[in-house]
Structures
1.
Amino acid sequence: MKQLREAMGAWLALVVYLPLFVLIAVLSLAWAEEQGAAILIWVAVLAFVGWQFVDTLAGWSDVPTAARVVAPFALGAVVLIGWEVIVRALDVPSVILPPPSQITGTFLSNMPTLWADFVQTILKGAMSGYVVGCLLAFGVAILVDRYDFLRRGLLPVGNFMAALPIVGTAPILVMWFGFDWQSKAAVVVVMVFFPMLVNIVAGLADTSAMQRDLMRTYSASYWQTLMTLRLPAALPFVFNGLKVSATLALIGAIVAEFFGSPTVGLGFRINASLGQLALDMVWSVIVVAALAGSLLYGFLTVLERWLTFWHPSQRR
Amino acid sequence: MTSGAGNRFGRAVLPVLAVVATLLSVWYVAVVPMNVKEVLTQAEREGAVVVPPSAAERRDSGRWSLVFANSHLLGASWSMDRSRLPAPHQVARELWASTWVEETTGRRGIVRSGSLSNRSLVYHGGVTLGATVLGFVIGSVMGVLLAVGIVYNRAMDLSVMPWAIISQTIPIVALAPMIIVVLYSVGLSGLVAKAAISAYLSFFPVAVGMVKGLRSPDAMQLDLLRTYSAGKAQSFWKLRLPASVPYLFASLKIAIAASLVGAIVGELPVQRGGLGARMLGGSYYGQTEQIWAALIVAAVMAAGLVWLIGWIERRTLKAMGAQP
């Protein structure tokens, strides 16, 4: 009986809701301009059908992963189609909210500009600062680990600094290091340093007394213990810090450009396009930033899975 | 008793004081090379003999070599106006002048005009604090509501949760200037626009943390409630919600810090008061002391807000009977 109901559910999802969803989407896209305020009802119906589709698919226990993959796309489709048709039907001026189709067009026709901005802000500014900041935090973390006095002194200061709006140092660092990417890298170094430090130190403390005693019975030196036991054990914490810092690095590099930049870069492009009320360009820049952030995060996740395969959270 | 207190001082407070003192002395030393070129230009104007005599030569030579060549002329390093790096006491003086002195004796201060001076950091800090707190409250409430929806609705969990996680990996703050300008053009300005950014930034950490918290009761506890034949509402109020409180506070601390950053960045495009406006104004006009003072106010505010949430957390957990 249960199996029958599930099979019915799957049938309902695939044969009724999916075609209905596509049909409503296509019709609303085709006739958006003639609808006026009635488009809101269309979007509500679209969202309802999408929700029913995901819900019935999720109840189908034969392929639980199918719903897991399809559901985010369904929501994304509802949001994008709703955005597009509402903007077109209600004639929202594009200086307030451009439709996704226009943003896509701007994005595709301005690829070279956006690529130059990406290189300037993400590769030169954010990534160089990210690498330097993480290495610096690593060095200080080793010092903190070796000397107890530093641990008691630096850790409270580091915890305090990690919660501060460090992005406020951007105007000062831009003044010191000039308008080019070096100042953005400096902001990123300061921003990622403290979260990384706190995470690495916490990670290095994450071995049990028994494990360390074992290393002592092998008469391992400090560095041998560090390299073969404590550093691998710290990796989950390190990756946690790396992920948090990755977002911070992008934020730092973009916001620092609001305080002065050469005429290239994502933050500069946002400010300049806002001045011309070219919101489709601003949205394109945001798409670039979002892609960069997700790619970096995805890369770190893959690296983490590869390096910390032994950790319980990575086992399947 | 006394030895306990002394021990605590030696183990906890002394190292922190040592680190802070080291940082301050590094700062004082760094003032000299950072400002050396401006100091030497000023000394030359006053008639002193500077070692590479031409300004062009000085521009191309290293800061430390200038310091060692002109060590007798460097007394002004710690009292320059508009210096590249102001000394700590200069920042402290600016802080004092733009808060207490401005309000008590200034023409526009609260004592003589009855309202807070628009030149004082008290006023600008208040502007930022208002937007931060309003946005934080809105964002947190929305985040908790979304989390409840995610935990109790399977379709919502499957469709919304991945986006909530992805949204944490992208620099949302890049949206801030656009939100400000767009809301400004539809007639919403100032507090509401900044609060919208703060709310947006604090929304996702709270939602993600709260989902984790509401799911933290294990199967055994949920089964126990089922044997009591507790309904969904009862298991929410009596088990899931209390279990989520530690997670909630951990994410509230992240959210309030993010909210403050959002408010500061939101003040950059429209210069209508606030700490972000002070920082940008300072960087336009080379008023470094003003930037540093605004930065310190922002830091104190962040620390105070995080501490306040920690205090509420301790009170709440104590009232709930948690073991310290």
2.
Amino acid sequence: MAVFEPEAEGIVLDAEETGGDIVGRSPWALAGRRLVRNKLALGALALFVLIVAVSFAAPLYANHVADTNPFESNISGTVTIDGKTVDVLQQGGGKLGLGETPIGPTWRSQYFLGADNQGRDVAARVLYGGRASLEIGIGSAVFASVVALIFALVAGFFGGWTDAIISRLMDLIWAFPLYLLAISLATVLLTSPNGLTISFVHVSADSLWIPLVIIGFVYVPYIYRPIRGQVLSLREKEFVEAGIAQGASNLRLIFGEVLPNVASTVIVLMPLMIATTILTESALSYLSIGVQPPKASWGTIIQDGQELLYTRPWVAIAPGIMIVLTVLALNILGDGLRDALDPRSKVRVKA
Amino acid sequence: MRSRSLFQLLTLIGLAALVLTACGGSSKKKSSASSGNSGGTLMTVAKGAPSGSPDPQINYTLQEWQLLIISHDGLLAFKRTSGTEGTKIVPDLATEVPKPENGGKTYVFHIRKGIKFSNGKELKPSDVKYTFERLFKIGQSPNAGTWYNVIVGGDACVKTPATCNLSQGVVADDAAGTVTFHLTKGDPEFFDKLAVPFAFILPTGTPNKEVQIPPPGTGPYKFAEYNPNKQIKLVRNTNFKEWSKDAQPKGNPDEIIQKFGLSAEAEVTQVENGQADWMFDNPPSDRLNEISTKYEDQVHVNPLTAVWYFAFNVRVPPFNNLKARQGVNFATDRNALVKIYGGPKLAVPTCQILPPNFPGYKPYCPYTKNPGSGKWTAPDMAKAKQLIAASGTKGAAVKVNTDTVETDKALGLYFVGLLNKLGYKASLQALSPDIQYPYCQNSKNKVQFCWSTWYQDYPAASDFLNILLGCGSFIPNSNASPNIAEFCMKPIQAQMDQALQQGITDPSGANTKWEAVDKAVTDQAPWVSLFNPKYIDFLSKRVKGYQFSPQWYFLLDQASVK
């Protein structure tokens, strides 16, 4: 059998990775050190934090900079530019004067990126939209991860019928085309005029919880599968068997022995999942079955901008850029985390 | 007829209108009659085929009706011309418009001789009886049970379509060349109903089931192809000889083609490039400035006898309170709503039910600052707040119901903001266009505030007032209840009934009564009437002889491409 030798492959390993200087450092500390050394991943993290920060500062921007309510129509409104009063929605030109065009980017505090066809400040809406997109993206990724983790731990640890039933259930969800399933659920739940009532819990049709749970739900199998595989493998490890021999309870084994060993996988998957769920949220909102107006998300703003592509492209471009930057940052960060938490995968990839 | 939206005329149920009087209705000068060169192919484009069945007795869309009027004829017709003349009823397959007999319950039509269908068969009075029996027998004609059940035997035909027998109601005499209609009661709109495609005459022997291409007709064109995924093609009917320029003039193009599958954006580009001569759909809002500045000579804008409105549910809180309804009416900035629709050149604010230049119309707007002129000028927020405070409805939750079409949703969002300002807790309920209208109509859903539109079927005040706000038009728990405000006031209904009765013998006197009904209903504020829309026709450079009929819109066959 051929033995893999990194040096022979031209791969330079860190001291920790060669096993030369690891005494006294936990795997998490080592991973942290590796991550800190990955400048690209750190840059991505900084960009993501910046996007989160400006998005959550949306009320400050709307109230103190743009001086606007981005959820209220301002169709007959005016704005002062260079001392001149200008209509926010401007009548079309020519003799016929057809159509009304929203004001374009002023590059000033008010209507920095222009207005949409309701006369609302696009820049303020993009920031508020970011808040909703991130809330749903992060929330649904966390929801999917927690649910998947619980099922994977139970199925992988107990095996047998428990595993068979849970795994077939996951296969069933997996078998549906993802977007089709999300669209079907969203169409039923979001367009239900009176919202969703389960027992004594009522969720209104325009609540952010509905897209959050739908998106989280459809991604559960995608996280469940790799984690279950790991749990199945860990279940047979000596340290677990030793725990069983010592009479440790199942709960203790699951949470004390198995969970810490799959946590790094969940952490690696998390940024990638957030990126994916943000994209899914944007797609659903673009189709009017995600965030409901007058609330904004990047997807709904792109939809608003679709009608204005010829005249006011910034309405669609601005949230589009925000989505691209966020997803890019999260993907790079996810790669960095994977490299930091599982250096062998880096070696494998490089080899 | 209720339409989805002006930008979605594919699903528009209906037709245009009695339009402007003196100014004629178009922003352009209109040619008075067909005088263009004949020949060539008029190439038109649309997003999709006419919705519903191709069968002329089932289809209820402007898109198909614009083609059926040049391939088929009724006993009577709306005069095929522009301006108010286009709302006049003229004889078509009949030699003259008959006088009512027996108190408006009997009409005798004399059928023209020598007219042939496109399949070569000669038109006979018995074809008329066959056509009306088929209307019921196919079982899917949308208005058979509401428009034509007035014919003796009609109600029985509605109940058992398969065995429909109108021998008592439509008496055809081939030898004498006459058809006599017997009605169960006088119907002032009977002539209008005979002049629309449901009542266009088909040859005896046409299958009594839905057909996939319109059967032979008597018009100057015939359907040569009807492929909903690709195109409709009409070619000349070689058996056609012009018998009445007013009712059915000879067309100009040799062929008329309507291609499907393009987006509205692509349609605009094709017309700009001369690849298409006319687009059926309205140009999208972000292209309006472009076409009105660069292609202004190719654009025609015409007012429609239609109204866009939000209906209050007068039986459900908080708008079961008159003061609350009036308050919202006073607060509504109709100029803002016109801007959402496309600006002041594309719509005119209104407060009342009937559209301008319509029978029974007299300008009336109590819900404006400085009322009196009949025109809306500005919202009166102070009065609105005062009325809403007096109503005691402040703080109530209100769902504003619209569909998800961009313009319609934008109108709904405007009202969400306005109602919140007025002290309500408003939220938007945007439903799919396919379900929104039936959802609003069904009283089980208790919709509080619903967006809708109405485009006339034919020029009669009752088509708005009685159909949309009459007691008989509210059908509890039904998806087909056009009175979505659930408005029913017995004194006003009595006024409507009187006007209907008077209309059989004295249309002008009846219109005075309708004027009073319009005012009385407007005072009760079952709606927030928003505006009366206009229609844009965008043509290629080579199209000459444009005519806009208030009833049928752009008269395709009267245009010339040579």
